Amino acid sequence: MFTITQESVLAKLPIAELRASLRTFLAPVTERLPDARLPAVAELMVHGIIASQSPLITQIARGAGHDDASIWPTSKRAYRFLENERFNHRLLLKGLYGWPKRRWLRNSQPTWWLRWTQSTSRNPTPSTWKG
Predict the structure, then answer these.
(1) pLDDT tens, 50-107?
(2) pLDDT value of position 76
(3) pLDDT level of residue 124 (50, 70, 90 thresholds)
(4) Within 13 Å and on the Cβ side, how many CA atoms surround 19?
(5) What are the helix (H) ranges across the chain?
(6) How many CA atoms lie within 13 A of 83 on its CB side?
(7) Nearest CA to 23 among 2, 3, 46, 6?
(8) Domain count, the chain
(9) How far is CA 13 from CA 6, 17, 30, 34, in A?
């Protein structure tokens, strides 16, 4: 009975809009990935984490999948993503740290910070630290 209620609720959700919103949200992270297929797996994993509310790979696959037959292949994709040797967690963190930095720059308009970073990127000496 719970499954029927859950399926009827999920059927009413605007899936295309939610996926577009998730894709926009993840863009700073996924644009740094070295392969064109990896952003789709990252989106699938985040979708599964949100749906399952669990960090376990099998639960993520269950939240991202549509039926029980897709749990194993989705888990396998997630494990391959996490064990990929062409990128590491630092690459993902660069994208994550870009969000607060862009938000801070957009909201506070820190002209002194911009002047400081521009001057130190050209000439990183202690005399330029005053701003």
Answers:
(1) 888 888 988 888 888 767 788 899 899 999 998 988 888 788 777 777 767 777 667 7
(2) 92
(3) low
(4) 8
(5) 2-11, 15-30, 38-52, 57-64, 71-82, 89-108, 111-122
(6) 7
(7) 46
(8) 1
(9) 11, 9, 25, 32
pTM of this structure: 0.63
- SS3 assignment for 57-76: HHHHHHHHCCCHHHHHHHHH
Torsions phi, psi for 65 (to 5 deg): -85, 170
Domain residues for 124?
2-130
Residue 52, Cβ density class (10 Å: 0-12 exposed, 13-18 middle, ≥19 buried): middle
Residue 20 token pair: 């577009």
Mean predicted confidence (pLDDT) in 30-58: 87
Alpha-carbon span 94 to 87, nearest angstrom: 12
Distance between CA atoms of 11 and 16, rounded to whole angstroms?
12
Q: Is residue 109 scored above 70 in pLDDT?
A: no
Q: Show the tokens assigned to 8.
A: 């009827």
